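Fill in residues.
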């Protein structure tokens, strides 16, 4: 009996060491993406002639469009503001000498996808970036505090959930036929846990994450990479263009980093600093994060940041 007990605990201990050793090895690979997940110079252009980016008029989407054009791809940029899209298209064309196609569409509305499918059907699309998304409010608030909740629910689900699924439906068949392609779906780091005060937004983004992971499992054997990218702070209009720092990244820096992790699995944080933030968030008990003190503190922090930004803008204009 004694020898069996010793054998059992020795085996159990060895299994635990091997398990966590493997996890540590996988973690250390994320520190050196260029070494562990190298990409040939022609990787993206080899997927197809065109890249499609939703929400490409500014922020993260705009930078993905520039980055993929610089990789030798023609790009289709989609958003709801024609004037801004035309300006971005001109900048990309002049900078990279690649073709740029503009599609004006408001993804918060219903029944916009038939026209999109018609405009894309003859293109050899190798990369899709589902970036477009909306947050009901920059300042945290409870679900029932929205003044027009029914309208907000419809807009958020259309923009954050329905658009991603429908764009995959439109573009994935061509990738499957050619047995190659890349789909990047932008989720959010705050969807890592149940996130009060941003409940609707966070829930929509966890859908993005789970859908992407499931789809990747379905189509990875057909040469298609489908990845959820889950950033925390990126200085865009969605977060009030907060000042960049070690964790609040500029869109260009975030996109450059995230593209290095394309072959790193079905989900990445897109950057090393956001990976550490994700780890930190998971180490704090939810009972602490969900206390009224923490929720009120979050709200006051965001309100203060917004006030500082408004004050700074007034000073600059003066």
């Amino acid at each position: 009996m004694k020898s069996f007990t010793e054998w059992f605990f020795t085996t159990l201990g060895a299994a635990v060491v091997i398990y966590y050793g493997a996890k540590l090895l996988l973690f250390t690979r994320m520190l050196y993406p260029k070494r562990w997940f190298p990409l040939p110079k022609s990787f993206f252009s080899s997927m197809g002639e065109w890249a499609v980016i939703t929400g490409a008029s500014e922020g993260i989407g705009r930078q993905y469009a520039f980055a993929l054009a610089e990789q030798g791809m023609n790009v289709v940029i989609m958003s709801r503001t024609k004037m801004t899209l035309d300006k971005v298209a001109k900048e990309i064309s002049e900078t990279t000498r690649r073709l740029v196609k503009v599609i004006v569409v408001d993804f918060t509305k219903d029944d916009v996808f038939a026209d999109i499918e018609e405009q894309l059907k003859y293109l050899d699309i190798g990369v899709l970036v589902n970036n477009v998304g909306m947050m009901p409010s920059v300042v945290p608030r409870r679900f029932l505090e929205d003044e027009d909740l029914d309208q907000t629910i419809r807009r958020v689900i259309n923009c954050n959930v329905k658009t991603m699924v429908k764009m995959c439906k439109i573009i994935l068949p061509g990738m499957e036929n050619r047995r190659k392609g890349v789909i990047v779906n932008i989720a959010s780091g705050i969807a890592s846990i149940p996130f009060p005060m941003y409940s609707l937004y966070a829930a929509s983004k966890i859908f993005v994450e789970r859908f992407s992971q499931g789809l990747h499992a379905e189509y990875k054997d057909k040469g298609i990479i489908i990845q959820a990218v889950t950033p925390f702070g990126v200085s865009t209009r969605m977060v009030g263009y907060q000042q960049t720092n070690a964790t609040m990244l500029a869109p260009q820096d975030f996109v450059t980093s995230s593209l290095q992790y394309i072959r790193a699995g079905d989900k990445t944080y897109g950057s090393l600093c956001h990976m550490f933030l994700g780890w930190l968030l998971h180490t704090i008990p939810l009972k602490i994060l969900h206390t009224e003190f923490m929720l009120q503190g979050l709200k006051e922090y965001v309100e203060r940041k917004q006030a500082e930004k408004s004050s700074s803008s007034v000073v600059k204009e003066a």
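Confidence is low (pLDDT under 50) at residues 313-318.
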